[in-house]
């Protein structure tokens, strides 16, 4: 996977760092801006307490550009949350975050990445498909939706090319 961004605006100006408790308030603000049903502060704190891999991506001015959280299992890495700050959509940052996810998986000797995505999130679906993720199933009524209804989740998997056969 290439780690090149669509625009040169960010070339050499983005830096990954492990997410820590000091990042959570800024992460929650972006999460609330990005989603109608965002993760809560408690979700992020629980993920950090459980030692899930959590990373932030910052611009040169220290503003948070995006983040992701991973849960490692025996055979795959489960991408729990990946978010790009809404005003940065379309800049290639989502793909840049996914590249880091894949690098971390490979470094751990894991060669499959699993995720769920809302069918209504067409932008994310396009990013995942472009990255090579394939649909492997549906989780019925997985996500909260408007009113008291629920939305299904599309389950997708990426098998990394560098993995064993």
Task: List the domain count as a whole number.
Answer: 1
**Strands, count:** 7
The proportion of strand residues reads: 25-35%
Report the order of strands and helices: EHHEEEHEHEE
- Shape designation: globular
Describe the main β-sheet briefly: 7 strands, mixed
CATH domain class: Alpha Beta
Looking at CATH, the homologous superfamily is Gcn5-related N-acetyltransferase (GNAT)
> N- to C-terminal separation?
18 Å
Rg: 15 Å
CATH architecture: 3-Layer(aba) Sandwich
Q: Strand sequence of the main sheet, in spatial order?
A: 1-2-3-4-5-7-6
Would you write up a description of this structure?
This protein is of the alpha+beta class. It has a single domain, classed as Gcn5-related N-acetyltransferase (GNAT) (Aminopeptidase, 3-Layer(aba) Sandwich). The chain contains four helices and seven strands, in the order βααβββαβαββ. It has helices spanning about 25-35, 40-50, 95-105, 120-130; strands at about 15-20, 55-60, 65-70, 75-85, 110-115, 135-145, 150-160. Strands 1-2-3-4-5-7-6 form a seven-stranded mixed β-sheet. The relative contact order is 0.15.
Keywords:
seven-stranded mixed sheet; 165 residues; Aminopeptidase; alpha+beta; 7 strands
Task: Describe the protein's topology.
Blueprint: E1 14-18, H1 24-34, H2 41-49, E2 53-59, E3 64-72, E4 77-84, H3 93-107, E5 112-117, H4 122-131, E6 134-144, E7 150-159
Parallel strand pairs: 4-5
Antiparallel strand pairs: 1-2, 2-3, 3-4, 5-7, 6-7
């Amino acid at each position: 996977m290439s780690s090149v961004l669509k625009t040169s605006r960010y070339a050499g100006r983005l830096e990954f760092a492990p997410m820590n408790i000091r990042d959570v308030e800024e992460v929650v603000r972006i999460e609330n801006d990005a989603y109608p049903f965002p993760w809560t502060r408690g979700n992020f704190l629980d993920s950090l307490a459980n030692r899930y891999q959590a990373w932030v991506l910052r611009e040169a001015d220290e503003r948070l550009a995006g983040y992701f959280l991973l849960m490692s299992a025996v055979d795959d890495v489960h991408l729990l949350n990946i978010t790009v700050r809404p005003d940065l959509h379309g800049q290639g940052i989502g793909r840049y975050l996914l590249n880091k996810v894949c690098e971390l998986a490979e470094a751990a000797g894991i060669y499959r990445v699993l995720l769920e995505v809302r069918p209504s999130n067409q932008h994310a679906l396009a990013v995942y498909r472009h990255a090579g993720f394939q649909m492997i199933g549906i989780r019925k009524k997985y996500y909260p939706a408007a009113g008291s209804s629920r939305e299904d989740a599309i389950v997708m998997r990426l098998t990394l090319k560098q993995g064993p056969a």
